Amino acid sequence: MKVIEIKHRETGDVLLRVHADTLRGADLGKAVLSYADLSGADLSGANLSAAQLFQADLRGANLSGADLSDADLRLADLTDARSDEGTRWPAGMDSGGGEAPGTEPGQAH
């Protein structure tokens, strides 16, 4: 099993180390991942409930089946992120499947 380092998108500092081969299905509930670089990450089926994802870079991430209930996604960049009917969004956010909900990069989603 390898160690995956989730890094700050601007400083490169390590925010979290995950002992797993992949982030697919990972338990990241309540993780502090503000400003994290998760661009292109496969987070399908991951538990991100109540995670702090403020200003996280989730561009192109696979969020299919992920649990983002109660997550802080303020100002997170969800451009081209993928979700499906199994993705659980915070209250007030619902994409209806397909692409993640959002507007323009840098705006609140």
In summary, what is this structure?
This protein has 109 residues and is mostly beta strands.
Which descriptors would you attach to this protein?
109 residues, mainly beta, Pectate Lyase C-like, two-stranded antiparallel ribbon, two-stranded antiparallel sheet, 4 strands, 0% helix, disordered C terminus
Notes on the protein architecture:
This protein has 109 residues and is an all-beta fold. It has one domain: Pectate Lyase C-like, CATH 2.160.20. The chain is built from no helices and four strands. The strands form two sheets. A two-stranded antiparallel sheet has the order 1-2. A hairpin with a 6-residue loop joins strand 1 and strand 2. The N and C termini lie far apart (34 Å). The C terminus is likely disordered.
Q: In which order are the strands of the major sheet placed?
A: 1-2
Helicity level = under 10%
User: Approximately how much beta-strand content do the residues carry?
Assistant: 5-15%
Question: Counting H and I runs of at least 4 residues, what is the number of helices?
Answer: 0
Largest sheet properties: 2 strands, antiparallel
Query: What is the class in the CATH system?
Result: Mainly Beta
Number of domains: 1
Please give the CATH architecture.
3 Solenoid
Number of strands: 4
Order of helices and strands: EEEE
Radius of gyration: 12 Å
Inertia-based shape: globular
Oligomerization state: single chain
User: What's the N-to-C terminus distance?
Assistant: 34 Å
Structural class: mainly beta
CATH superfamily: E3 ubiquitin-protein ligase SopA
Low-confidence stretches: 103-109
Overall pLDDT level: 90
* CATH topology heading: Pectate Lyase C-like
